[in-house]
Amino acid sequence: MSILQRKVTIIYYCDDGLELHHEVKTLEQNDVGRVVIPQAFKEGKSIIAVCDGEIEILNKIGDRILSVNYTT
After folding, report:
1. Number of continuous H segments (helices) and E segments (strands) in the chain
2. What are the residues facing 23 on neighbouring strands?
3. pLDDT tens digits in sequence order for the chain, 72 residues long
4. 3-state SS assignment for residue 40
5. Phi, psi at residue 10, to the nearest 5°?
6. Which residues contact 15 (CB under 8 A, 6 or more apart)?
């Protein structure tokens, strides 16, 4: 019996910041097709999405925020 694996892109926030991150990983999947994310990877993160395959994220929240100077 072979262990099935799947390449996924995981989108997440770190618990200590608001910057959106992503990582491509090849992980084991269970009998119903869901990937098993190791607990060590989950530590200190809030996972937003798990996408099938390697995806290219063109823009994320905050990528285009410009500094705004307010004057009175």
Report:
1. 1, 3
2. 10
3. 578 999 999 999 999 888 889 999 999 999 888 999 999 999 999 999 999 999 988 887 766 655 455 555
4. helix
5. -105, 125
6. 44, 45, 46
